[in-house]
Amino acid sequence: xxxxxxxxxxxxxxxxxxxxxxxxxxxxxxxxxxxxxxxxxxxxxxxxxxxxxxxxxxxxxxxxxxxxxxxxxxxxxxxxxxxxxxxxxxxxxxxxxxxxxxxxxxxxxxxxxxxxxxxxxxxxxxxxxxxxxxxxxxxxxxxxxxxxxxxxxxxxxxxxxxxxxxxxxxxxxxxxxxxxxxxxxxxxxxxxxxxxxxxxxxxxxxxxxxxxxxxxxxxxxxxxxxxxxxxxxxxxxxxxxxxxxxxxxxxxxxxxx
Length: 257
What we know:
By secondary structure, the protein is α+β, with helices and mostly antiparallel strands. The protein has helices spanning 6-9, 13-38, 75-94, 145-155, 171-197, and strands at residues 45-56, 60-72, 103-117, 120-137, 160-167, 201-212, 217-222, 244-256. It has a domain at 59-169: Protein of unknown function (DUF541), domain 2 (Alpha-Beta Plaits). Helices cover 34% and strands 38% of the residues. The strands form two sheets. A five-stranded antiparallel sheet has the order 3-4-2-5-7. Strands 1-8-6 form a three-stranded antiparallel sheet. Helix 3 (75-94) runs antiparallel to helix 4.
């Protein structure tokens, strides 16, 4: 039987070389793991933000309006009155040249109303509400059309104007125009600032964009808009669309050479 002398095996050159190789390999693996864990590759990048702005004149307005009917004795009474007023409103709006397809219901509710007397809940009647959105096109060709629609609708019984959203029919083209301007701005900043910092930029390794939505015009108007319908209209509304602005920000990241 062959007996291995472990005491003297470490003197064998082959064993020594194997141990050294294993130690070196282990060291390389550890260094690689530590490098991947602690070295942040983003520190070798430089990012620059550009902004693009495009002014435009809106050509579409979406008007959110509605009717509230309160405390009718029977639910059918509330619905009948609501339907009558909505039909009058739709007719008045269509008479201003708005197509029927541009008038859409957003919300429709019927609910009981309770009064509390001496901590006792008592049915006081039924309330009904309907909210519609009116899409008005080509407002840039008729500056007074929005004012006119709100006025005739209020005379026809609208007692809620919840907000107006202005937009452009070519909004995607306007966004692209602002995006291209923002990219050019970011590239210009990258060229100037990199020279000031004394660094050389390589290829683009990442980018993102941020679109700042146009602020909508919101309001909450009621009661005296149309004197509850059938009465004389109050003061004529003045709702200019004005000039709107699209803002796009683009951030571009470069690899530092």
